[in-house]
Write a structure and sequence with these properties.
Layout: E1 6-7, E2 20-31, E3 34-46, E4 51-55, H1 62-69, E5 78-86, E6 89-90, H2 96-102, E7 107-110, H3 124-136, H4 140-153, H5 159-162, H6 172-184, E8 190-194, H7 202-219, E9 222-227, H8 230-236, E10 239-244, E11 247-253, H9 254-259, H10 264-271, H11 317-320, E12 321-322, H12 337-352
Parallel strand pairs: 1-12, 4-9, 4-10, 7-8, 8-9
Antiparallel strand pairs: 2-3, 2-5, 5-6, 10-11
Helix pairs in contact: 3-4, 3-6, 4-6, 6-7, 10-12
The structure holds adenosine-5'-diphosphate and magnesium ion.
Magnesium ion binds at residues 62-63, 194.
């Protein structure tokens, strides 16, 4: 007998008034082993000038979501359903030529590894100047000046001279700054930062995060900041969305989610974070079990095989009924609001210290 998964909650239509509105997004890939459901029923909104932090274990669909916003998947192997509205423009059905106009101009992305964005064959200055010329029609000279200005803004010393260097002449931290300069050169309305500091040492990481905050103040862009580090999120984001196995399990303002998290998976994430006052060499308490296969995800709540609270939910609902996160609901879990509060206050918080 197969288990029937009931989907809870009626889908809410995309908010055409929001700056970015993602509704019931599904992204799947055809592979040799079968269909990977990388994103499965994801909805969220983002307003201008705000930073949304997306957090979740590796493989939860964070990068796929954002590459889909940028239209960067190979249509041969990818099926996309749902809606992505950017200022009312539907992106999932947009033509490649329209997406190309958006990328680097209205929407820009910075990656964990700057070498995926920077070419070894051209000078750093040229790589920053080129998108500016393409999208604004500026002259070569004006675009070069702009590239030098941007390198200065992201804190590269002697930007006039360094603009003529090739990426390999830059240190890792400087390459990261150069990529940020490239992403911001056209003053994008939406900046997607996918684990931009994961590969950097702590000091450089802190500098880059400060830089992003300053630049947001100056440019007023909306930012999607992806990380598996809740500490970084706490520092950077106005709002948090926690992803698990291709869906959002919890969403709220950063203060709400960190102060009174509602979802057992979020509790696990918080519990696995190093504490400031703890011995840094002490092992973290990871969430027991492993993330599920997205080829054949668990029925009902995707997190139920790893959840220690399902016996507190009446009947077999965690196994048969998938709790979805409606835009007005803080967490996708069958525990009642009262249960979530009580469990967090009495059982989880004391463990977090
Ligand atoms: N092009 C692809 N083809 C097949 N599977 C993919 C592809 N890209 C990503 N996936 C799978 O989709 C899931 C989500 O990946 P991803 O969004 O990269 O996770 P993360 O949250 O770590 O960024 C993973 O299971 C990954 O293996
Ligand atoms: Mg990723």
């Amino acid at each position: 007998m197969t288990t029937v998964t009931k989907e809870a909650g009626a889908p809410v239509p995309a908010d055409a008034g929001a700056f970015l509105s993602v509704r019931d997004l599904h992204v799947s890939f055809k592979t040799e082993d079968g269909v990977v459901k990388a994103v499965d029923g994801l909805s969220f909104d983002l307003e201008r000038g705000r930073t949304l932090g997306i957090v979740g274990e590796s493989g939860s669909g964070k990068s796929v979501t954002n590459l889909t916003i940028l239209g960067l998947h190979n249509p041969m192997f990818t099926t996309i359903e749902g809606e992505i509205l950017l200022e009312g423009q539907e992106l999932t059905t947009a033509r490649e030529s329209e997406l190309e106009k958006l990328r680097g101009n209205k929407v820009a992305m910075i990656f964990q590894d700057p070498l995926t964005a920077l070419s070894p064959y051209y000078t750093v200055g040229r790589q920053i100047a080129e998108p500016f010329m393409k999208h604004t029609g500026a002259s070569k000279k004006a675009a070069w000046d702009r590239a030098v200005e941007m390198l200065g803004k992201v804190g590269i010393p002697n930007p006039k001279e360094r603009a003529g260097d090739y990426p390999h002449q830059f240190s890792g931290g400087m390459r990261q700054r150069a990529m940020i300069a490239m992403a911001l050169v056209c003053d994008p309305d939406l900046l997607i930062a996918d684990e931009p500091t994961t590969a950097l040492d702590v000091t450089v990481q802190a500098q880059i995060l400060d830089l992003l905050k300053d630049l947001q103040q100056e440019f007023g862009s909306a930012i999607i900041f992806i990380t598996h580090d809740l500490g970084v999120i706490a520092d950077m984001a106005d709002d948090i969305m926690v992803m698990y196995a291709g869906g959002a399990v919890e969403r709220g303002t950063t203060a709400e989610v960190l102060r009174s998290p509602q979802h057992p998976y979020t509790w696990g994430l918080l519990n696995s974070m190093p504490r400031l006052d703890s011995d840094l060499s002490a092992p973290l308490a990871p969430i027991p079990g492993t993330p599920p296969s997205l080829l054949n995800p668990p029925s009902g709540c995707r997190f139920h095989p790893r959840c220690t609270f399902q016996d507190r939910v009446d009947g077999n609902r965690c196994v048969t009924e998938r709790p979805l996160l409606a835009p007005d609901r803080a967490s996708a879990c069958h525990l009642t609001a009262e249960q979530k509060r009580t469990i967090f206050v009495e059982e989880i918080r004391p463990r977090l210290g």
